[in-house]
Amino acid sequence: MRLVSVQEAAELLRSGELVVVPTETVYGLAARADSAEAILKIYAAKGRPSSHPLIVHCGNAHQAAHMASDWPDLAQRFAERFWPGALTLVVSRGATVCSEATAGGATVGLRVPDHPVFQALLAACGLPLAAPSANRFTKLSPTRVEHLDPELLRHVAGVLDGGPCAVGIESSVVDVTVTPPALLRAGGISIEALRAVAPDIVAASQPSTKSPGQHSAHYQPGKRVKLEPAAGELTIRVEGGPKSVMPNDPAEYARQLYSVLHAMDAAPGDAIVVAEPPNTDAWAAVWDRLRRATASDDV
Ligand code: TXA
Ligand code: MG
Question: 105-116, pLDDT tens digit by residue?
Protein backbone atom coordinates (compact mmCIF):
# COMPACT_ATOMS: atom_id res chain seq x y z
CA MET A 1 0.00 0.00 0.00
CA ARG A 2 1.41 3.37 -1.03
CA LEU A 3 0.59 6.00 1.62
CA VAL A 4 0.37 9.50 0.11
CA SER A 5 0.01 13.08 1.36
CA VAL A 6 -3.06 15.24 0.68
CA GLN A 7 -1.14 17.07 -2.05
CA GLU A 8 -0.02 13.84 -3.74
CA ALA A 9 -3.55 12.43 -3.49
CA ALA A 10 -4.96 15.56 -5.14
CA GLU A 11 -2.49 15.29 -8.03
CA LEU A 12 -3.20 11.58 -8.55
CA LEU A 13 -6.96 12.22 -8.56
CA ARG A 14 -6.66 15.13 -10.98
CA SER A 15 -4.71 12.89 -13.34
CA GLY A 16 -7.53 10.31 -13.28
CA GLU A 17 -6.11 7.78 -10.79
CA LEU A 18 -7.89 6.07 -7.87
CA VAL A 19 -7.06 7.04 -4.26
CA VAL A 20 -8.41 5.51 -1.04
CA VAL A 21 -9.68 8.37 1.14
CA PRO A 22 -10.72 8.61 4.80
CA THR A 23 -14.26 9.73 5.62
CA GLU A 24 -16.05 9.90 8.96
CA THR A 25 -18.27 6.95 7.93
CA VAL A 26 -16.03 4.39 6.17
CA TYR A 27 -13.01 4.62 3.86
CA GLY A 28 -13.90 5.53 0.26
CA LEU A 29 -12.40 4.62 -3.11
CA ALA A 30 -12.26 8.00 -4.87
CA ALA A 31 -12.01 9.17 -8.50
CA ARG A 32 -12.81 12.49 -10.15
CA ALA A 33 -16.57 12.63 -10.71
CA ASP A 34 -16.35 14.27 -14.15
CA SER A 35 -14.26 11.58 -15.86
CA ALA A 36 -15.85 8.42 -17.26
CA GLU A 37 -12.43 6.82 -17.60
CA ALA A 38 -11.58 7.41 -13.93
CA ILE A 39 -15.01 6.22 -12.75
CA LEU A 40 -14.74 2.96 -14.69
CA LYS A 41 -11.57 2.17 -12.73
CA ILE A 42 -13.67 2.22 -9.53
CA TYR A 43 -16.05 -0.43 -10.86
CA ALA A 44 -13.11 -2.60 -11.96
CA ALA A 45 -11.32 -2.26 -8.59
CA LYS A 46 -14.44 -3.18 -6.60
CA GLY A 47 -15.68 -5.86 -8.97
CA ARG A 48 -18.99 -3.98 -8.71
CA PRO A 49 -21.77 -4.17 -11.32
CA SER A 50 -21.90 -0.98 -13.41
CA SER A 51 -25.63 -0.63 -12.57
CA HIS A 52 -24.82 0.54 -9.01
CA PRO A 53 -24.59 4.36 -8.71
CA LEU A 54 -21.81 6.09 -6.75
CA ILE A 55 -21.97 8.91 -4.21
CA VAL A 56 -20.38 12.21 -5.31
CA HIS A 57 -18.57 14.03 -2.46
CA CYS A 58 -18.35 17.82 -2.40
CA GLY A 59 -16.54 20.34 -0.19
CA ASN A 60 -19.68 22.23 0.77
CA ALA A 61 -23.42 22.50 0.11
CA HIS A 62 -22.95 25.25 -2.47
CA GLN A 63 -20.71 23.02 -4.62
CA ALA A 64 -23.14 20.12 -4.10
CA ALA A 65 -26.11 22.20 -5.30
CA HIS A 66 -24.14 22.80 -8.54
CA MET A 67 -24.00 19.04 -9.15
CA ALA A 68 -27.81 18.93 -9.24
CA SER A 69 -30.09 20.10 -12.05
CA ASP A 70 -32.68 20.97 -9.40
CA TRP A 71 -32.00 21.79 -5.74
CA PRO A 72 -35.30 21.60 -3.84
CA ASP A 73 -35.90 23.52 -0.64
CA LEU A 74 -35.97 20.21 1.24
CA ALA A 75 -32.43 19.39 0.03
CA GLN A 76 -31.26 22.78 1.29
CA ARG A 77 -32.84 22.18 4.71
CA PHE A 78 -31.29 18.70 5.03
CA ALA A 79 -27.92 20.15 3.96
CA GLU A 80 -28.08 22.96 6.50
CA ARG A 81 -28.97 20.57 9.30
CA PHE A 82 -26.67 17.60 8.57
CA TRP A 83 -23.74 18.70 6.35
CA PRO A 84 -20.91 18.15 6.71
CA GLY A 85 -21.97 14.70 7.86
CA ALA A 86 -23.19 11.15 7.27
CA LEU A 87 -26.10 12.03 4.98
CA THR A 88 -26.33 11.40 1.22
CA LEU A 89 -29.03 13.29 -0.67
CA VAL A 90 -30.39 11.86 -3.92
CA VAL A 91 -31.33 14.71 -6.29
CA SER A 92 -31.63 15.14 -10.06
CA ARG A 93 -28.24 14.88 -11.79
CA GLY A 94 -26.60 18.01 -13.19
CA ALA A 95 -24.55 18.08 -16.42
CA THR A 96 -21.09 18.14 -14.76
CA VAL A 97 -21.50 14.69 -13.18
CA CYS A 98 -20.62 12.04 -15.73
CA SER A 99 -23.34 9.47 -16.32
CA GLU A 100 -20.99 6.57 -15.43
CA ALA A 101 -20.92 7.88 -11.83
CA THR A 102 -24.69 7.53 -11.56
CA ALA A 103 -24.89 4.25 -13.47
CA GLY A 104 -26.64 6.12 -16.27
CA GLY A 105 -29.43 7.29 -13.95
CA ALA A 106 -31.10 10.70 -13.93
CA THR A 107 -30.37 11.23 -10.22
CA VAL A 108 -27.15 11.64 -8.26
CA GLY A 109 -26.30 10.91 -4.61
CA LEU A 110 -24.41 13.86 -3.04
CA ARG A 111 -22.61 14.11 0.29
CA VAL A 112 -20.42 16.68 2.07
CA PRO A 113 -18.13 14.57 4.31
CA ASP A 114 -17.15 15.57 7.83
CA HIS A 115 -13.51 14.49 7.94
CA PRO A 116 -10.72 17.07 8.10
CA VAL A 117 -8.35 15.09 5.83
CA PHE A 118 -11.02 14.48 3.18
CA GLN A 119 -12.10 18.13 3.40
CA ALA A 120 -8.47 19.21 2.86
CA LEU A 121 -8.27 16.86 -0.14
CA LEU A 122 -11.48 18.22 -1.70
CA ALA A 123 -10.12 21.76 -1.30
CA ALA A 124 -6.70 20.80 -2.73
CA CYS A 125 -8.07 19.08 -5.82
CA GLY A 126 -10.93 21.52 -6.39
CA LEU A 127 -13.09 18.78 -7.87
CA PRO A 128 -16.06 16.74 -6.63
CA LEU A 129 -15.01 13.13 -6.03
CA ALA A 130 -17.09 10.04 -6.65
CA ALA A 131 -16.43 7.40 -4.00
CA PRO A 132 -18.10 4.17 -2.97
CA SER A 133 -16.96 2.38 0.18
CA ALA A 134 -13.44 1.00 -0.40
CA ASN A 135 -14.39 -2.69 -0.15
CA ARG A 136 -14.66 -5.37 -2.83
CA PHE A 137 -18.26 -5.99 -3.97
CA THR A 138 -20.45 -7.55 -1.18
CA LYS A 139 -17.56 -7.48 1.34
CA LEU A 140 -17.07 -5.66 4.61
CA SER A 141 -16.31 -1.93 4.42
CA PRO A 142 -12.97 -0.69 5.82
CA THR A 143 -12.90 1.70 8.77
CA ARG A 144 -9.08 1.65 9.03
CA VAL A 145 -6.41 1.38 6.31
CA GLU A 146 -5.37 -1.99 7.80
CA HIS A 147 -8.75 -3.37 6.62
CA LEU A 148 -8.07 -2.65 2.93
CA ASP A 149 -8.24 -5.68 0.64
CA PRO A 150 -4.95 -6.37 -1.22
CA GLU A 151 -6.90 -7.22 -4.38
CA LEU A 152 -8.55 -3.77 -4.33
CA LEU A 153 -5.22 -2.08 -3.56
CA ARG A 154 -3.75 -3.42 -6.82
CA HIS A 155 -5.97 -0.89 -8.65
CA VAL A 156 -5.17 2.06 -6.38
CA ALA A 157 -2.46 4.70 -6.96
CA GLY A 158 -2.37 5.92 -3.34
CA VAL A 159 -3.89 5.59 0.12
CA LEU A 160 -4.59 8.62 2.30
CA ASP A 161 -4.61 7.51 5.95
CA GLY A 162 -6.95 9.51 8.20
CA GLY A 163 -7.08 7.14 11.18
CA PRO A 164 -10.11 5.13 12.36
CA CYS A 165 -13.52 6.31 11.08
CA ALA A 166 -15.56 8.01 13.81
CA VAL A 167 -19.05 6.99 12.62
CA GLY A 168 -18.05 3.51 11.44
CA ILE A 169 -20.98 2.68 9.12
CA GLU A 170 -22.05 4.25 5.83
CA SER A 171 -24.14 7.40 5.40
CA SER A 172 -27.93 7.47 5.46
CA VAL A 173 -29.23 7.84 1.88
CA VAL A 174 -32.33 10.03 1.44
CA ASP A 175 -34.16 10.53 -1.87
CA VAL A 176 -35.58 14.06 -1.98
CA THR A 177 -36.88 13.75 -5.56
CA VAL A 178 -40.00 11.98 -4.26
CA THR A 179 -42.79 13.09 -1.93
CA PRO A 180 -42.65 12.15 0.87
CA PRO A 181 -38.84 11.83 0.95
CA ALA A 182 -37.59 8.23 1.18
CA LEU A 183 -34.83 6.79 3.33
CA LEU A 184 -33.16 4.41 0.84
CA ARG A 185 -30.43 3.24 3.23
CA ALA A 186 -30.36 3.53 7.02
CA GLY A 187 -26.97 4.82 8.14
CA GLY A 188 -24.95 7.18 10.26
CA ILE A 189 -27.85 9.58 10.90
CA SER A 190 -30.85 7.99 12.58
CA ILE A 191 -34.36 8.23 11.15
CA GLU A 192 -35.42 10.05 14.32
CA ALA A 193 -32.84 12.77 13.62
CA LEU A 194 -33.93 12.97 9.95
CA ARG A 195 -37.55 13.44 11.07
CA ALA A 196 -36.54 16.80 12.59
CA VAL A 197 -36.24 18.09 8.99
CA ALA A 198 -38.81 15.83 7.28
CA PRO A 199 -41.41 14.46 9.74
CA ASP A 200 -43.05 12.54 6.86
CA ILE A 201 -39.90 10.66 5.76
CA VAL A 202 -40.57 6.98 4.96
CA ALA A 203 -38.17 4.06 5.06
CA ALA A 204 -38.12 2.46 1.58
CA SER A 205 -38.99 -1.23 1.63
CA GLN A 206 -35.85 -3.35 1.33
CA PRO A 207 -34.28 -4.22 -0.97
CA SER A 208 -35.02 -0.96 -2.73
CA THR A 209 -35.09 -0.90 -6.50
CA LYS A 210 -34.39 2.85 -6.35
CA SER A 211 -31.02 2.15 -4.75
CA PRO A 212 -29.45 -0.68 -6.68
CA GLY A 213 -26.54 -1.17 -4.26
CA GLN A 214 -29.07 -2.51 -1.77
CA HIS A 215 -28.91 -6.22 -2.67
CA SER A 216 -29.28 -8.37 0.43
CA ALA A 217 -25.86 -10.04 0.63
CA HIS A 218 -23.52 -7.19 1.48
CA TYR A 219 -21.09 -6.05 4.16
CA GLN A 220 -19.93 -9.65 4.50
CA PRO A 221 -16.76 -10.89 6.15
CA GLY A 222 -15.14 -14.08 4.84
CA LYS A 223 -16.60 -16.18 7.68
CA ARG A 224 -20.30 -17.04 7.90
CA VAL A 225 -22.21 -14.69 10.24
CA LYS A 226 -25.07 -15.97 12.44
CA LEU A 227 -27.44 -14.18 14.83
CA GLU A 228 -28.44 -15.43 18.28
CA PRO A 229 -30.80 -13.97 20.89
CA ALA A 230 -28.91 -11.69 23.27
CA ALA A 231 -28.45 -13.14 26.76
CA GLY A 232 -27.75 -9.93 28.61
CA GLU A 233 -24.65 -8.58 26.90
CA LEU A 234 -24.42 -7.60 23.22
CA THR A 235 -21.60 -9.88 22.19
CA ILE A 236 -19.90 -10.65 18.88
CA ARG A 237 -17.87 -13.86 19.00
CA VAL A 238 -16.18 -16.48 16.91
CA GLU A 239 -17.57 -19.96 17.63
CA GLY A 240 -14.97 -21.56 19.88
CA GLY A 241 -12.84 -18.42 19.68
CA PRO A 242 -12.57 -14.81 20.88
CA LYS A 243 -15.51 -12.72 22.10
CA SER A 244 -16.13 -8.95 22.14
CA VAL A 245 -18.70 -7.23 24.31
CA MET A 246 -20.24 -4.42 22.27
CA PRO A 247 -21.54 -1.09 23.66
CA ASN A 248 -25.25 -0.94 24.43
CA ASP A 249 -25.62 2.28 22.43
CA PRO A 250 -26.42 2.23 18.69
CA ALA A 251 -23.92 4.95 17.64
CA GLU A 252 -21.08 3.45 19.70
CA TYR A 253 -21.97 -0.04 18.47
CA ALA A 254 -21.93 1.17 14.84
CA ARG A 255 -18.57 2.86 15.34
CA GLN A 256 -16.98 -0.47 16.35
CA LEU A 257 -19.02 -2.94 14.27
CA TYR A 258 -16.89 -3.33 11.11
CA SER A 259 -13.65 -3.17 13.04
CA VAL A 260 -14.78 -6.00 15.32
CA LEU A 261 -16.05 -8.04 12.36
CA HIS A 262 -12.72 -7.56 10.55
CA ALA A 263 -10.86 -8.73 13.71
CA MET A 264 -13.17 -11.75 14.19
CA ASP A 265 -12.71 -12.61 10.54
CA ALA A 266 -8.94 -12.74 11.01
CA ALA A 267 -9.22 -14.96 14.13
CA PRO A 268 -9.24 -18.79 13.84
CA GLY A 269 -12.70 -20.43 13.73
CA ASP A 270 -15.57 -21.02 11.31
CA ALA A 271 -18.47 -18.72 12.11
CA ILE A 272 -19.08 -15.33 13.70
CA VAL A 273 -22.04 -15.20 16.09
CA VAL A 274 -23.70 -11.84 16.79
CA ALA A 275 -26.12 -11.31 19.69
CA GLU A 276 -29.27 -9.57 18.42
CA PRO A 277 -29.47 -5.90 19.43
CA PRO A 278 -32.83 -4.29 20.35
CA ASN A 279 -35.38 -4.07 17.52
CA THR A 280 -36.04 -0.33 17.65
CA ASP A 281 -35.68 2.59 15.18
CA ALA A 282 -32.48 3.72 16.88
CA TRP A 283 -30.84 0.40 15.94
CA ALA A 284 -32.17 0.32 12.33
CA ALA A 285 -28.81 1.01 10.64
CA VAL A 286 -27.00 -1.61 12.73
CA TRP A 287 -29.79 -4.12 12.01
CA ASP A 288 -29.60 -3.38 8.28
CA ARG A 289 -25.87 -4.19 8.22
CA LEU A 290 -26.30 -7.32 10.38
CA ARG A 291 -29.11 -8.64 8.18
CA ARG A 292 -26.99 -8.20 5.06
CA ALA A 293 -23.90 -9.67 6.72
CA THR A 294 -25.95 -12.80 7.52
CA ALA A 295 -27.78 -13.02 4.15
CA SER A 296 -26.86 -16.01 2.03
CA ASP A 297 -28.29 -14.87 -1.32
CA ASP A 298 -26.31 -12.73 -3.73
CA VAL A 299 -28.66 -10.71 -5.92
O1 TXA B 1 -20.80 6.74 3.91
C2 TXA B 1 -20.90 6.50 2.71
O3 TXA B 1 -21.94 6.73 2.08
C4 TXA B 1 -19.66 5.94 1.98
C5 TXA B 1 -18.54 6.99 2.04
C6 TXA B 1 -17.34 6.57 1.23
O7 TXA B 1 -19.04 8.23 1.62
N8 TXA B 1 -19.99 5.61 0.63
C9 TXA B 1 -20.76 4.54 0.31
O10 TXA B 1 -20.91 4.36 -1.06
O11 TXA B 1 -21.28 3.83 1.13
P12 TXA B 1 -21.45 3.00 -1.69
O13 TXA B 1 -21.26 3.16 -3.16
O14 TXA B 1 -20.79 1.84 -1.05
O15 TXA B 1 -22.98 3.02 -1.37
C16 TXA B 1 -23.78 4.01 -1.98
C17 TXA B 1 -25.23 3.73 -1.77
C18 TXA B 1 -25.69 2.54 -2.58
O19 TXA B 1 -26.64 1.83 -1.82
C20 TXA B 1 -26.32 3.21 -3.79
O21 TXA B 1 -27.31 2.41 -4.38
C22 TXA B 1 -26.90 4.48 -3.18
O23 TXA B 1 -25.97 4.87 -2.21
N24 TXA B 1 -26.99 5.53 -4.21
C25 TXA B 1 -25.99 6.26 -4.74
N26 TXA B 1 -26.46 7.09 -5.70
C27 TXA B 1 -27.79 6.86 -5.78
C28 TXA B 1 -28.84 7.36 -6.61
N29 TXA B 1 -28.62 8.27 -7.55
N30 TXA B 1 -30.08 6.89 -6.41
C31 TXA B 1 -30.33 5.96 -5.46
N32 TXA B 1 -29.39 5.43 -4.67
C33 TXA B 1 -28.13 5.86 -4.81
MG1 MG C 1 -20.62 0.07 -0.09
Answer: 999 999 999 999
